[in-house]
Every structure is written in C-alpha cells, then in structure tokens.
Design brief:
4 helices, globular, alpha+beta, 20% strand, binds tetrahydrodeoxyuridine
Length: 141
C-alpha cells in the first residue's frame, strides 16, 4: 500500500505538496512543481523547483526534496511523489532520475499526480534502467 492511500498520510502528503508548490520559485517558466518524499521510517520531506536567471542552474522539485532528506540524515526513498497542477502528469527529468536512483532500491516507487489527483505509479528502475552506479559499473578499464 502506498503512503498516500492511508487517510492520515494522504492529508500530510497533499498538504506538503500544495505548500511546496505554492513556494515554487519559477518566474521564468511559471511552471510550479512540487515533490514529496516518504522515507523508510515514514518521514516526509518536500521540495519545489527553484529557477535562476542563469537558466541552467535551475533545481527541480525532486532534487530539492532529496536535498532536504539528506540534510535531515535520511538516505532512502521509499516513495517519491510529483505534483502537477494541470491534468497532465509531470515525469522526472533525466538528471532527477539519476539522483533518485542514488537513494533508491528496486522497491522504490515514483508516483505522478495530476491536478485531479489521478496517479501513475512507476518504480525508480523502470524510469531509469541500467542506472550508472560506481560499484556496479560495467565499463571496462
Ligand atoms: N521541473 C521540475 O521541478 N521537475 C521535473 O521533473 C520537471 C521540470 C521544473 C524545472 C523548471 O523550473 C520547470 O519545471 C520547467 O521546466
């Protein structure tokens, strides 16, 4: 069962997501994104996108949430939610998929939510197969 399917957790996740989305700093794209992470021990962290006049410095919502999680001393994503305020789903960019992979295992779920709260659920490895990992890198020396 996903945390969002539990009535108490659901309220918390939606509230954090809504607050983070309101705080998104996106004067250039005007595209507000929020992400909420649930850890193994059910701690919850949120993040929003933070843009910059030098566009390429923009940080996506997923990576903002990951930074919050790591700062709090947590390193494992059980679930990561991505909130869209349109009927379309937002799917993590390539950089975020690699960053999610760093703190995931095969059971980690990536949940995309549109404004009607419809969900699409993926595993982190479905979104990024053949992840680059130093220990398991198959590149030949
Ligand atoms: N963005 C995210 O925050 N997460 C994604 O998964 C895709 C894109 C942000 C980055 C930028 O501020 C805005 O959406 C438009 O690309």
């Amino acid at each position: 069962m996903l945390a969002i399917e539990d009535p108490i957790f659901s309220k918390k996740i939606f509230q954090l997501g809504k607050d983070a989305q309101n705080n998104a700093y996106c004067p250039y794209s005007k595209f507000k994104v929020a992400s909420v992470i649930v850890t193994k021990d059910n701690q919850v962290f949120s993040g929003c996108n933070v843009e910059n006049a030098s566009y390429s410095l923009t940080i996506c919502a997923e990576r903002s949430a990951i930074v919050q999680m790591i700062t709090a001393g947590q390193t494992y994503i059980k679930e990561i939610y991505l909130f869209s305020n349109s009927s379309k789903f937002i799917s993590p960019c390539g950089a975020c998929r690699q960053m999610i992979a760093e703190f995931s295992d095969p059971s980690t779920k990536v949940i995309l939510l549109n404004q009607e709260s419809h969900m699409q659920v993926f595993t982190a490895s479905e979104l990024l197969p053949l992840t680059f990992e130093l220990e398991t890198s198959n590149t030949q020396a």
